Amino acid sequence: MEPHFDEINNRPVHSDDLEEDGSPLDSFKTGVHIASHSQQAHGHHGYNLNPNILSPNRESFDIDLIMAPKRHSSSRFEPTDHEEIVKLPSFNEVLPEEQIPLFIRKIDQCNVLFDFSDPTYDIRGKEIKRATLQELIQFISSNRFTYTEEMYKHVINMYKTNLFRPIPPPANPVGDLYDPDEDESVDELSWPHMQAIYEFFLRFIESPDFAHQIAKHYIDHDFILKLLELFDSEDSRERDCLKTTLHRIYGKFLSLRSFIRKSINNVFLQFVYETERFNGIGELLEILGSIINGFALPLKDEHKIFLIRVLMPLHKVKSLSMYHPQLAYCIVQFLEKDPLLTEDVIMSLLRFWPKINSQKEVMFLNEIEDIFEVMEPSEFLKIQIPLFAQLSKCISSSHFQVSEKVLMFWSNEYFLTLITENAEVILPIIFASLYELTNATQPSVSNGVMKQKLAENPGAVTDANRNLIDPGLNINNDGINGMNDMTDDEYYDSFSNAHHDLDYNSGLPPHNSATTNWNRSIHQLVFGALKVFMDHNVILYDHCTMLYHQSLEEQRVREAARKDGWNKIEEYVSKLKQQKGSDNFTSRNGEKVAGQ
Known about the structure:
The protein is an all-alpha fold.
């Protein structure tokens, strides 16, 4: 007989790994068998260990050495011990007065849990339960009758039995966050039954015959807390059903609304300050978006506190991308309700602004763009200085998407209205960032709009020789002829010159290192932004240009003073070395004379 080979563990299967009939053990048993031998040999118990654990480079045992087994379900169900279930008669086969008792019998029959990890286990029983659930859904949807208290008790007990269960830790607790675009989803194997139960329960509470006065004895605080725990399920289909269920409960049970909001707050706070891992944050925020939309005016203080102390800190979690659209929607909903909250929201965003995560910066800028849509002009005045100080940094960002996103703000008419009305405050803040992204020798600048505007005001910014102070925009025949000889392609190619370094003595504006690889769209956006201010107030633009060059001159003076200081220090150190060398030479000569 040919020896068996275990493809999973990449080893021959020994006689100890064979069943009584000679067939190999299944891969799970084989893996456990191998692990037990390894644990006994190396003194570790209860874990499947990474084979690199014995590497001499490993100094101590840590969590990275544990190989997390691949999980095929996002939770753990314990199948119930039961006799073989039988199909009950349909509702059409019994008298009307017998339908309610039959309804309860069918509900109780659905309390049986099956093992879906084995597809071949009790196939007939699984199909009977699925068909029974579909029959219950149809009965609830197509019949009108008074729900008895016994029905509420049995329905909610069936819901708890089938759905309330412990959610295990994530499949990758110490690694990278789950990425739905890259990682394989972990779905519930028993979803065919779970989906039917979620649908039945929704039809039950949405029915016109549903009485929340009776149901509130069973749908209580403990029920809500258990329901919120299920939002950590890794199955997105279940989280979507939970979202709809909780929203319906919030709408039906007025007495539970405050408790639901507080419980969601606790989930968020634990997520932000403790775990930073919870799969259902996005779904909970979707529910809150609908809840916030229904808040009465004026907003209560508890709602304002929730915005600043609970929602805003969600921006600092590293997994922000998983739920940011829903979070931004909630923020905008609050500002639409109460524009006076704009200052607190913007200052919180600036406090949590990412320093090194460019993708996260783009998300923040998207949110700022949404906030601009609902921002009142009076509130804009309160935050324009700190906000545009941050936007100025983003314009100068070395990441082109960050810079491009800010510059795209200029395509918004309402944004243009706000900045032109307050140009005297805003332009001095962002002028340097915009100007340093331009190349002063660009033909379209010298021969285009900027040249025309400056030519119309020849005395606006001039030096002692009555020349424009900006050498890059200096209008002289030599410069114009030289730039006319340069095509647009040649100009943009000049940005790739790696030797175009900062030179304070050149008189040219210092270019951000990122400008050596900006594409044309960035430059077009920058020139468009500058043109807005120039068209609005050319004198202000010229004044900012003058101040900018004055700052360059001051920077050049400081740089010269710094270099001069270092030169003096180097000269002083050099003299000390020379003096020490001469002293050593004199002492050695003296010793020689004394020795003679």
